[in-house]
Amino acid sequence: MDKKYVLVVDDDPDLVETVAMMLESKGCEVGRAYDGVEGEESIKERRPDLVVLDVMMPRKDGYVLCAEMKANPELSDIPVVLLTAVGEAVPTTTYTHADGMSTEADDYIAKPIDTEGLWGVVNNLL
């Protein structure tokens, strides 16, 4: 596999580093962003081959960023993997399962994440 550039967007720095280290160990180049606005800026600066995107983040959530990417013809072909703890959080937040079903994300991984399971999804989409 050619060295692929994967952008990891999550407001949990520890999770970003865990995922980044796993992807780097598999030969990927990794960009890091810590909220949806920063993720959007990173995508504009350098087009990733894939985005690993958290759902619940400040400033711009993953559902919104994913929808914006999929609506933009220049970005719509970039695979997006959503990381979500929404299933557990639905009773206590404004996030819903319908929000997730309405996005055009290419796959979903539940938190807490299994890095090898995430790698299987990422590798398949790359």
Structure commentary:
With 126 residues, the chain is of the alpha/beta class. It has a single domain, classed as Rossmann fold (3-Layer(aba) Sandwich). It contains 6 helices and 5 strands; from the N terminus they run βαβαβαβααβα. It has helices at 13-25, 36-45, 62-71, 86-89, 97-102, 115-125; strands at 5-9, 29-33, 50-54, 80-84, 107-110. Strands 2-1-3-4-5 form a 5-stranded parallel β-sheet, with helices on both faces. β1, α1 (13-25) and β2 (29-33) form a beta-alpha-beta unit. The model is unreliable at 87-101 (pLDDT under 50).
N→C terminal distance: 9 Å
- By CATH, the architecture is named 3-Layer(aba) Sandwich
H-E order:
EHEHEHEHHEH
Helix content: 40-55%
How many helices? The count is 6
The CATH topology is given as Rossmann fold
Instruction: Tell me, briefly, the overall form.
Output: globular
Radius of gyration: 13 Å
Query: Uncertain segments of ≥5 residues (pLDDT<50)?
Result: 87-101
- What structural class do the secondary elements suggest? alpha/beta
Number of strands: 5
Q: What is the CATH level 1 assignment?
A: Alpha Beta
Outline the secondary-structure elements.
Blueprint: E1 5-9, H1 13-25, E2 29-33, H2 36-45, E3 50-54, H3 62-71, E4 80-84, H4 86-89, H5 97-102, E5 107-110, H6 115-125
Parallel strand pairs: 1-2, 1-3, 3-4, 4-5
Spell out the key features of this protein.
Rossmann fold; globular
Put the structure in a nutshell:
This protein has helices at residues 13-25, 36-45, 62-71, 86-89, 97-102, 115-125; strands at residues 5-9, 29-33, 50-54, 80-84, 107-110. By secondary structure, the protein is α/β, with parallel strands linked by helices.
